[in-house]
Batch of 2 targets.
Target 1
Amino acid sequence: MASIGYFLSSEQFGPKELIDQAKRAEAAGFERLWISDHFHPWNDEQGQSPFVWGVIGALSQATSLPVTTAVTCPTFRIHPAVIAQAAATAAVQLDGRFVLGVGSGEALNEHVLGDQWPSVGVRLEMLEEAIEVIRLLHGGEEVSHHGTYYEVQDARIYTLPAEPVPIYVSGFGPQATELAGRIGDGYITTMPDADLVRVFQESGGQGKPVQAGTKVSWDRDPQRALDIAHRTWGNQGLPGQLAQTLPRPRDFMDGQTLVTPGMIGESVACGDDVDAQVAQVRPFLDAGVDELYVSQMGSDMEGFFTAWEKDVLPALR
């Protein structure tokens, strides 16, 4: 059986709210945590974006659940040597219950220092070298690295966990998924796509964990649930590479005017119907996902956690 975790959305909730949700998730029977790593929210309606490493430190004192970043981009906004130190500290704080999820990033978060936003192929090359740097530093020795994209001189991380931090790689297309299979300790996706899971496994990921995340909008009023989902997460309906290339939250707001409530309702369970919530999760399990993380878009957290504890999680298990 797949393990069901809770997805903490840093784009929509502040740091104290995220800690409260993590506590509620553990009490309700969720088995692990995902947390997003953003500089900006996707749009202004979401309205938050706390620094993930500060929140992870607080999580280590508030919950006993494992934590994965979903996902950190270690290539532009923050140098991989700094990410290596942050991940090592997080793993020590969490007594080894930490996974560094990484990906090639979005312009939304990574353009803020004025870096050029390159092609997908270049971004994946940068990601591969960044992972190499992180793993070298997690070895505990003094490191000097003179690569194509990154320079590290006489660096050593002193605060390290007993075991190296697992690094899972995100992929939404064949190229990134093949990279995840080749160099990742696991795979991260947001799509219930059995073909991509197969690509990951055939590229070297056989036997490695597959994580995925999804969002529901739980509310006793289905129309209110749909309105919230459309207003706050309409960006999920944008096609193609727009999620990777649009640079500002207001650009996503403009793009979302093309996304109708009906388009969101087709992919998001809106309301309090248990069968609908279960039906959104089932395709991920059928696709071969080992760990599925579910996020609540709506504001009724008490209702969501109560319903999932009493009805949805038992139905899935």
Note: The longest helix spans residues 120-138.
Target 2
Amino acid sequence: MQAWQVHENGEPSEVMRLDEIETPTPGDGQVLLKVRAANINFPDALLCRGHYQVRPPLPFTPGVEICGETEDGRRVLANPALPYGGFAEYAVADAAAVLPAPDSLDDAEAAALHIGYQTGWFGLHRRAGLEAEETLLVHAAAGGVGSAAVQLGKAAGARVIGVVGGAEKAAVARELGCDVVIDRRAEDVIGAVKEATGGRGADVVYDPVGGEAYAQSAKVVAFEGRIVVVGFASGSIPSPALNHALVKNYSILGLHWGLYNTKNPKLIQHCHEQLTELAARGAVKPLVSERVPLSGAAAAVQRVADGVTTGRVAVIPGLTEGGAA
């Protein structure tokens, strides 16, 4: 089968190589899946660079989120078990963690209703307790992780402020349903948030960026507000001033979604049921901005790493160069 392999760590476009390899054999408790769609996540770039918390042995195939097909023809969602990731014709996954793909979504959309939306659901509901009528601030609101949080926030009845970088991403954020969109390249984020909230600030801040975005969050979080830390796409890990959290009376909440797989997997199933229901009634619909053939995976992972994409970019092994499936 064809599979992208990383033989050394570095930038995705430089270290990913499309190889012909043996179809993997699943181990005990695992299942072999035909990849129908593999969505690109920022961790795929971190895996290539060797900067992710998991470091599979070289060579490995990245791709941490797929919609696949079982041997008996069922469409399912899975997080492939590395080193046999999703940027290939076949992947391996733990059978116990496989979830049914929502009928209301196509393959690429279904794959995107997994990591980003599960992270958003756990962050907003399980960790932050977001309530209707509260104000939710989402950093990188037009990206794969942020766009999911925007839709989930609106579905929960919150007022959503989206922070983006650039006019093109601002337009995407508006289409996603943001009530207020702030272009950090053209506006002062802190001043714009305070103006939009009458000086009160945001009840919940969803931050997959870190760095300067976190510093802004601490200045605009409301009394009894909650900052949900979900990632550091900026590459800069902030060091919060805990005295500031004390004086201003807000909470800093960490979220590592993957831990629920081992600590409380039943919650992941419950979350998937909630997300499937939201998708069925059209309350959420993953934004898939681009679908590329398997041959285009390395370049697409690099674009995600460079932060120039919106929503999700999906790799479709059955797609031809001309775009036909």
Note: The first helix runs from residue 12 to 15.
